Amino acid sequence: MSAPTLNHQASGYDARQAYCMAQAAELAYADRGRIEATAAGWGFDRVRHHHSTFTPPFALSDTQAYTAASPTMIVTAFRGTEPVQLRDWLSDTTTPPWPGPANTGLVHYGFAEALRAVFPSVRSAITELRDAEQTVWFTGHSLGGALAMLAAAWLHFEDPSLSAHGVYTFGQPRTCDRALAVAYDRALSGRTFRVVNNNDIVTQVPPGPAFRHVAALRYIDSSGRVRESAPMASTLLDRAKGMTADPFAPAADGMRDHFMKAYVTALEKNLP
Predict the structure, then answer these.
(1) What biological-process terms (Gene Ontology) are attached (predicted)?
(2) How does pLDDT run across 55-105, given as a tens digit for each residue?
(3) Considering the domain boundaries, does residue 107 fall inside one?
């Protein structure tokens, strides 16, 4: 994995920053030794690991993440989960959603439980490592994207001194109700970017309107180009084009588009 060129003070959407954050999100799937070695190669001299188990209503699960610090930047990357396990989480409708940060809106119960398992460790690491007013960033793929967005929400609304400078998520499912989505968009506008790859099936669950996405979409079309928006009519046509790219397995396109490697490859092609 090549060393990314991170802009520690980037503001607004930046193609190179998106690619670098995708690499950081992908690294969350690696083992501890590789995470530390790779982060060191990127200029992050300190790493803290976060790992905790919890028991949602359906099965024992765990949350994993890492926080890496350089003299000017701190990045927390959350690991995703297997699509089958995520499907089980999202299919649970018997448990009511959790109150959002500072009692703002509501959050999907499974995501709230997953974040709660490691959030004290994440907040403690950021507080410890932020010894030179470093910028704070969150990233993650799939479930990890949901946790990255929610971690940024909890810090901003409950500990504003640690409010995120930037949040990049990839293949993120819907996480919260309209009240929290609106408050989040108002608070972190221009700092959060939700990247969606064409037919990525995970970005379409859990169902609306009970659960919503935050704004700031960046849509990767079927040709691999990143767009700033996804108008309904053209998006439907583009998704149909993506599904016919493999005539032998059109239904698999939604899962292929969800793989983290697909995001990294597409974003690399969009580098300036």
Answers:
(1) lipid metabolic process
(2) 655 555 788 999 999 999 999 999 998 766 666 666 665 678 899 999 999
(3) yes
